[in-house]
Design brief:
Elements lengths: L1 E5 L7 E5 L7 E4 L8 E9 L6 E9 L5 E12 L2 E4 L1
Antiparallel strand pairs: 1-2, 2-3, 4-5, 5-6, 6-7
């Protein structure tokens, strides 16, 4: 399954999340013809495996076209301890 997400930078370009392997999604993008870095943040929330946990996927495409996906995870306070990775 592939999801199309617009960059929303006025270029009408998109990036794509290919979840054929849900553990390791593949992130691709239309070419960055404007040569300006762009960034999009997607927020995932769940109450299944991580109670009230939040995961952010940050997708950045640099001016030279390099795509950098970053996952940030925060787990709520459990026993007065906040964890994240």
């Amino acid at each position: 399954m592939t999801i199309t997400i617009p960059w929303g930078d006025g270029s009408e370009d998109n990036f794509y999340l290919d979840y054929t392997d849900p553990i390791n999604p593949i992130v691709t993008s239309d070419p960055n013809l404007n040569h300006i870095s762009r960034r999009k943040v997607i927020k995932y929330t769940t109450n299944q495996n991580i109670p009230n946990g939040t995961v952010y996927l940050i997708v950045e495409q640099r001016f030279d076209g390099l795509i950098i996906p970053i996952f940030e995870t925060t787990v709520p306070i459990i026993d007065n301890t906040v964890s994240g990775f």
